């Protein structure tokens, strides 16, 4: 094999590597990222309210609501949870933590 051939092979190899990397990257962009970031977009309909007495607690973190705390009510079933708790929950689930109604 001449030096010229060897150089051509090297260039071909690098080109193939670049194409494979670009393919993997676009696969990651198209498939992996949307799956992870798909949730809690505009799809989930909630009503935000501020707690001001009345008792009850959030079933996700098992804590009582405190005055002035943010709560979110799911439109689909009207169950209420801490905004932060329900946002975290809906990153991995499509359903209400309490009654399993689909909220997405
Ligand atoms: Zn909570
Ligand atoms: Zn519910």
From TrEMBL:
InterPro entries, A to Z: MBR1/2-like, Znf_RING, Znf_RING/FYVE/PHD
Transmembrane segments: 9-28
Domain spans labelled RING-type: 58-100
Coiled coil stretches, renumbered: none
Pfam families, per database record: zf-RING_2
Keyword terms of this UniProt record: Membrane, Metal-binding, Transferase, Transmembrane, Transmembrane helix, Ubl conjugation pathway, Zinc, Zinc-finger
Magnesium among keywords: no
EC assignment: 2.3.2.27
Reaction catalysis annotation: S-ubiquitinyl-[E2 ubiquitin-conjugating enzyme]-L-cysteine + [acceptor protein]-L-lysine = [E2 ubiquitin-conjugating enzyme]-L-cysteine + N(6)-ubiquitinyl-[acceptor protein]-L-lysine
PROSITE patterns: ZF_RING_2
Gene Ontology MF: a single term: ubiquitin protein ligase activity
Xref: Gene3D superfamilies: Zinc/RING finger domain, C3HC4 (zinc finger)
UniProt keyword Zinc present: yes
UniProt name for this protein: RING-type E3 ubiquitin transferase
Organism: Handroanthus impetiginosus
């Amino acid at each position: 094999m001449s030096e010229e051939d060897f150089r051509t092979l090297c260039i071909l190899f690098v080109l193939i590597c670049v194409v494979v990397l670009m393919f993997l990257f676009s696969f990651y962009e198209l498939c992996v990222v949307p799956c992870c970031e798909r949730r809690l977009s505009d799809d989930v309909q909630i009503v935000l309210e501020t707690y001001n007495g009345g008792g009850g607690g959030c079933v996700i973190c098992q804590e009582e609501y405190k005055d002035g705390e943010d709560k979110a009510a799911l439109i689909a079933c009207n169950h209420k949870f801490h905004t932060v708790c329900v946002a975290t929950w809906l990153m991995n689930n499509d359903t209400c933590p309490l009654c399993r109604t689909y909220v997405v």
